[in-house]
Design a protein that fits this description.
By secondary structure, the protein is an alpha/beta fold. It has 23 helices and 16 strands. β3, α5 and β4 form a beta-alpha-beta unit. The N terminus and C terminus are likely disordered.
Length: about 625
């Protein structure tokens, strides 16, 4: 018996091993070899587990409060994060340099995903991109998807479908919606129904350690009282608090106890289990604990989810894992995203409250970029207020950014004339912005401050590049403009704000990209020449293709005949202006927009290819709905 118990302490060295040996000898010396005595011995061994852990830890690692956060040892990433485990900002330290394990709670797939979900996932996608692409940390992210749950069973009954089909349908839709919002997929998706053997084994080990108990009908509950003072790392509640907040379940020994395994109810799906009648399904909290442990073992670097999951879900996850693995701290960092709610509704956006806007509905009105910028306008852990006013602000921010990128393109190509730029000012502002951006994202991923720094740089550059008509042979500074444009473009891509048109041009083959640019430049130059000729006044105005045209007005006519001649000339040139407008309209439907800038024009590839986006891009206020329909449907 002593030898069997001693094997449980394998890996405990020095003082820890000697202490455990003494405890085991004391226990085994007073018992016989019967089955009941063996169970008592094992129970005593379990109770000395907490002391064994203390013996394994170095003196400075033993916390007086068993719920206190233990700072990990390893590589300091230079990032400070708000850790919900200690409710303060702390350094992000990884045991393995430039590698982090990350578990994220995924959706319960019983209905359409809404923008409340999207806000959480987009925020953590931004954080993931910052860690991977800016700080060069290799992340392995696992997202757990709950595909068996009371709500899924209820939805299946409502639709008269198998629960598996309901879960699969909405799981696929969720992944498509995340793709539309450009949320990167996790390294691995895990689904609860594919981890049933592991879940049952995980629960059984907790039972074996004395931290859970089964009931006659086959349910299994976690024994919070037996777990002791370690419970309550997020929210510290006693039994009296719980009695006021929920009904007492007669099956449970304690009011705070929670289900690890639920006995099967009539008409519900079930899996074979070793408890009670042998039929049941897992509780909610045990699912994530099992799947995360199956992927990462007894240590996890980062755990994320919405603030609503902090208690009881994440609280119970911690208790289950630390009891199962016999460790003082399972996950080193918990990051929680704030709720999204409508301005008129103080409650979070939730399917159960029926106050949601689905991702599909949202994307009919706004773009993925606009939503991402909306999410960046607040810190990830702050509550977010959704309203048309806030979304209009995000749309305005996007317009500012796209206008700068397009103006910079036009300036670099020589299609935008302005006064000489203050290169010293712009380069100083660029350096200052880089410092501000790094400090912002290192401070708990402060995207609001990072975005403000970028917008200040863009504002300075836009002021310098203000169009000035009539500037002849201006001194140009394409190098500094290109440097700022490249930095802004790179930072936006890093944050997941991507412009498909710019990306298409960059990822296409070199030959086709160069050919596309040459064709468009030639077309725009030809149109600019024709348009300029159509706008010129005077009988002697003649276009000279490829040569700069003057916009200086000729002297006023001195006789009435000349006035009439000018009017006639304008009328004769109306078809040219109409042709210029029509080709601009047709290019919009091809995904290209021409912008007239005085006597010059530039072009850009449209980001928003929707009907609404193309209609918004048509600058002619007299453009009729019939023409609009004609160009779209091709009739």
């Amino acid at each position: 018996m002593y030898q069997r118990c001693l094997t449980r302490a394998r890996g405990v060295g020095g003082t820890g091993r000697r202490h455990l040996q003494q405890r085991l000898l004391k226990v085994t010396s007073s018992i016989d070899c019967g089955l009941d005595s063996e169970k008592d011995t094992l129970r005593n061994v379990r109770h000395c587990g907490s002391q064994v852990l203390k013996d394994k830890l170095k003196p400075q690692e033993v916390a007086e409060d068993p719920r206190a956060w233990i700072q990990p040892k390893g590589h300091d990433t230079g990032i400070v994060v708000y850790n919900s485990l200690c409710k303060r900002k702390v350094p992000l330290i990884l045991p393995n340099k430039n590698f982090a394990s990350w578990y994220q709670c995924g959706p319960t797939v019983y209905d359409h995903a809404h923008i409340g979900h999207a806000c959480c996932y987009v925020k953590f996608d931004i954080i993931r991109r910052i860690m991977e692409d800016f700080f060069n940390i290799d992340l392995v992210m696992v997202m757990g998807v709950t595909d068996i749950d009371d709500k899924i069973i209820s939805k299946a009954r409502e639709l008269n479908m198998e629960f598996t089909h309901v879960a699969q349908t909405f799981a696929h839709e969720f992944k498509r919606d995340m793709g539309r919002l450009r949320v990167q997929p996790p390294t691995v998706y895990t689904r609860v129904t594919t981890y049933m053997p592991q879940i049952i084994a995980f629960v059984q080990k907790i039972v074996d350690k004395g931290y859970a108990y089964s009931t006659e009908n086959g349910s299994v509950y976690f024994d919070v009282a037996k777990y002791g003072d370690r419970y309550g790392k997020f929210v510290r509640q006693n039994d009296a608090d719980m009695v006021q907040s929920r009904e007492v379940d007669k099956e449970k020994r304690g009011i705070r106890d929670f289900a690890l395994w639920k006995a099967a109810k009539p008409g519900e799906p079930w899996w074979t289990s070793p408890w009670g009648k042998g039929r049941g399904r897992p509780g909610w909290h045990i699912e994530c604990s099992t799947m995360a442990s199956a992927m990462f073992g007894d240590k996890l670097d980062i755990h994320t989810g919405g603030i609503d999951l902090m208690f009881p879900h994440h609280e119970n996850e911690i208790a289950q894992c630390e009891a199962h693995h016999c460790v003082p701290q399972w996950a080193n960092y918990f990051l929680h995203a704030g709720h999204l709610h409508k301005t008129s509704d103080k409650d979070k956006m939730s399917k159960s409250l029926k106050n949601t806007i689905t991702i599909r509905e949202f994307l009919e009105k706004y773009t993925a970029n606009q939503f991402r910028l909306f999410c960046m306008m607040t810190r990830y852990r702050n509550a977010v207020e959704y309203s048309d006013t806030m979304m209009n602000e995000a749309v305005s921010v996007q317009h500012t950014l796209t206008s700068f990128l397009n103006n910079a393109d036009a300036y670099i190509r020589g299609q935008l004339d302005c006064e000489p730029l203050n290169e010293t000012l712009l380069m100083e502002k660029l350096g200052e912005t880089k410092d501000k951006f790094r400090r912002a994202i290192s401070d708990d991923f402060d995207t609001r401050a990072a975005l403000e720094a970028i917008l200040q740089l863009v504002s300075t550059a836009n002021k310098e590049m203000r169009t000035s008509v009539g500037v002849e042979n201006p001194v140009r500074s394409p190098g500094v403009v290109a440097a700022i444009q490249a930095y802004v473009d790179r930072v936006l891509q890093l944050l997941g704000v991507e412009y498909p048109g710019r990306k298409k041009m960059s990822v296409s083959t070199v030959d086709s990209t160069a050919q596309m640019k040459e064709v468009m430049d030639s077309l725009v130059k030809f149109r600019s020449t024709v348009r300029h000729f159509a706008l010129l006044k005077g009988p002697d105005a003649q276009p000279k293709y490829g040569q700069p045209q003057t916009t200086t007005a000729p002297p006023p006519p001195t006789v009435e005949g000349e006035v009439g001649s000018v009017k006639l000339q304008r009328k004769e040139r109306e078809p040219l202006m109409k042709a210029c407008d029509e080709i601009r309209t047709e290019l919009v439907w091809a995904g290209i927009q021409i912008q007239d800038r005085g006597r010059k024009s530039s072009w850009q590839i449209l980001e928003d290819q929707s009907i609404e986006g193309k209609q918004h891009s048509l600058s002619d206020p007299n453009y009729s709905q019939e023409q609009f329909k004609k160009y779209f449907v091709g009739s």
